[in-house]
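debug: dumping io for the single-chain case to check the tokenizer round-trip. Nothing else runs in this session.
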Amino acid sequence: MSRNLQVAAASVLIGVIVLTLKGAAYWVTGSIALLSDALESIINVAASLAAFFALQISGRPADDNHPYGHHKAEYFSAVLEGVLIVVASLSILREAYYGFLEPHLPEQPLNGMLLNGAATIINAVWCVVLLRIGKARRSPALIADGKHLMTDVVTSVGVLIGFVLVPVTGWPQLDPILAGLVAINILWTGWGLMRESVGGLMDAAPPPDVVGRIRELVSTHAAGAIEAHDLRTRHAGRMTFVEFHLVVPGDMTVSAAHVICDRIERALEEEMDDTIITIHVEPEGEAKHRGVVVL
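debug: decoded output
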């Protein structure tokens, strides 16, 4: 099992533990705000399962039907997670509405806070781990899972702070109001996840700093060539695709041009893992006098 799959499997297990703790917190208190937190944890478990299966698919090697691999499967997991978050937020809003119509003070508030607090600490630690590994391995599925957990941690802290105020103020309407605020917050997160994931499915370019670094590496390691133009890049899961036209002197041998291409490819691969590079060599008559200038 790959490292990404191991992390995704651990996410499922941790999600179940957190869900159990938050469910228990709602069971002992009857709090609508804590129910909203527990509902979001159900989405966490479902999303972690989706990420696990998406990573299994994305790890498959290229085949005749998918010559560029299965890397985009991770984006489907991230899109699904965004959709699930939206569904969860609508469910929470529904519970908050009925809770506001018939408010009541939570029971056993201390026990509820302890259970929910323990779940929040577990989520916070795992969130940091997920984001660190996801960014290091450029995994959209793990990054989406980590961002969702980060939102969960923030909302849980807000719920706990507000939950303390409910028995202090004696205002039961505060409980469903907190639940509504949680719903709005995770709704915004779900929209952001879907927007980023759709960008990946649409072959969005890497961030400007990454594109700039690619141009710099091509320029620095293309000695002997004249220019590089029509540079295009895109992300597909953890893979980065780079392609461009390399203009060389008309009398240069194929072997010499091949040496330049190898040098550029080696530099890009050393700088960025999981990179697929395509270089089209052209004679100097095809120069466009724009694009990447060879240093």
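debug: round-trip ok. The beta strands are 227-236, 239-248, 275-283, 292-293.
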